[in-house]
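In this supplementary section we document a worked example of the pipeline. Step one takes a protein sequence of length 208 as its only input; no multiple sequence alignment statistics are reported here. Step two produces a three-dimensional model, which step three serialises into structure tokens for compact storage. The input and output of this example are shown verbatim.
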Amino acid sequence: MNAGWQVELHEGDVALRPIRVRDQRSWQDVSRRNRDWLRRWEATVPPALPGRAAGPRPTYRQMVRYLRGEAAAGRMLPFVVLHKGQLVGQLTVGGITWGSMCSANVGYWVDESVAGRGIMPTAVALSVDYCFSVLGLHRIEVCIRPENRPSRRVVEKLGFREEGMRPRYLHIDGDWRDHLVYALTVEEVPEGMLERWRSVRRSGAYGN
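The serialised model returned by step three reads:
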């Protein structure tokens, strides 16, 4: 069992904390309001066999139970993103692998009404610093559809390195989609990701 995922991370008005069953109403309200904004980027489950429809989507409670079970097993960090105490998105550190790799991937989404305010870069920076300085991971990867410019700008602002294309990498919005791979290792951010992001914001290089 892994107790290290039960943490809250803060920077100014932005916070990350573990997703909870009692977040259901807030999470569903944000998700419903942003359905059109998020649909193009949402993961889907391919049919098990050609011509067979995929099974039903899990309920919110089923999703949370799965995420928290994976977290307890040390394979995931399932966070909600808060802005001024309000739930505005989700960030998941997944695929945590130990041994000779010590890596993970990060996925995220945010309410369109607060996009572009620096909330998600701050949330990603918080999660990266936790993964590197507390968990002891070595590499973080983010895979993004090439068409998803807002999501790509998040990692570009933070200085992630673009590594190339993975053709038909993930099943998104009903089909297999190409993804660009962005990554960094702990050696590339000796000052810490959050401190790098603070410096970028002070310089005004990317706005928010």
